[in-house]
Predict the structure of GTP cyclohydrolase-2.
Amino acid sequence: MTIAPTQIEILNRAKADLRMGLPVVLRDGTDAALAASAETINVQRLAALQGMGGALDLAITNHRAATLKARAYDGDLARVAVPTGSGLRWVQALADPEDDLRTPMKGPLESRRTGPAHLHRLAIRLCKEARLLPAALVVPLTAPVAPLNLSGLTEIDAACAKALIEAPTALSEIVSARVPITAAEATRLHIFRPEDGAEEHYAIEIGKPDRSKPVLARLHSACFTGDLMGSLKCDCGPQLNAALAQMGEEGAGVLLYLNQEGRGIGLANKMRAYSLQDQGFDTVDANHRLGFEDDERDFRLGSDILRKMGFSSVRLLTNNPAKIAMMEKCGIMVTERVPLKVGLNAHNARYLATKAAKSGHML
Ligand SMILES: Nc1nc2c(ncn2[C@@H]2O[C@H](COP(=O)(O)OP(=O)(O)OP(=O)(O)O)[C@@H](O)[C@H]2O)c(=O)[nH]1
Ligand SMILES: [Zn+2]
């Protein structure tokens, strides 16, 4: 063991760099590129990337490309050539759909069809991991680009990074303590910390559930607006309270509070999605216009925490069949689905209907 950072630590540094607007170096064998977030880059750094003389691309997902009517020759992504002289506003208008309806004609956009796209794909993935808009500026570092002083920039080995991002995150329990709550006085809160330095996740254990029997369980994804503000746009707050109340009544249960805000896109992007919903798009289309999949969550976290707590089978409080499928795939047996139908109101009726129609949620 040396004191030098591990690949996973370097990867996390890269996410922080992207959030600050700093470019990172991506290397894969002889291929190398400089990548930066389209959302956070500033005028000076954009000018520096343009001054390198290489083929500067804006990498966007196929979903964002479809909205912009840009060709996605790489399947899941498009490499849109950044025309000489384009400024920060051009880049931001392509990355962020906020003004799409006001200024619909952004083109003509020219997508690159030759050359490799794997570093562009990784750059988009890193932006998503950093909870930024999934749009990255990418410029090759191979000749004929002007030599650049890269000292101090975080350098990532692409193959390593890809494997690390795809692997389930290892979590360990840091601490647990008694927290009496309205739903049940006998409640403990457990804190689980991922080894990659990312956000912690919580388990609320009610009573002392028998580990040899299926436990009444809920995998609840963080919803700041619903859980804390009492937002009427979704059903999260009432679901959270109803689940805890049912566990309290039965005297046992476990609610995992997973920090996957906005189905894994982060609160800032969820607010962008809400702004699009105010323009008339539904919850799924809003995610797509931003460049995301409908659901970017990783439910492997949930099965890992349950296993670490000694549970192997659950009675799952959910209306989402994807959660059941994922639990079973990850080796947690779902002996029963317990429906959780609360919180319907005039503001969230369309949202819930969309989830039923497009994401297979059970009404
Ligand atoms: N991107 C996005 N996320 C949203 C929106 N509305 C709510 N969310 C998020 O959706 C997630 C809902 O989480 P859950 O209630 O655990 O999951 P679910 O898929 O609805 O499944 P069940 O509630 O178990 O039936 C939370 O992370 C919310 O922050 C939206 O319009 N867009
Ligand atoms: Zn919510």
User: Anything to note?
Assistant: The two ends are 53 Å apart (CA to CA).
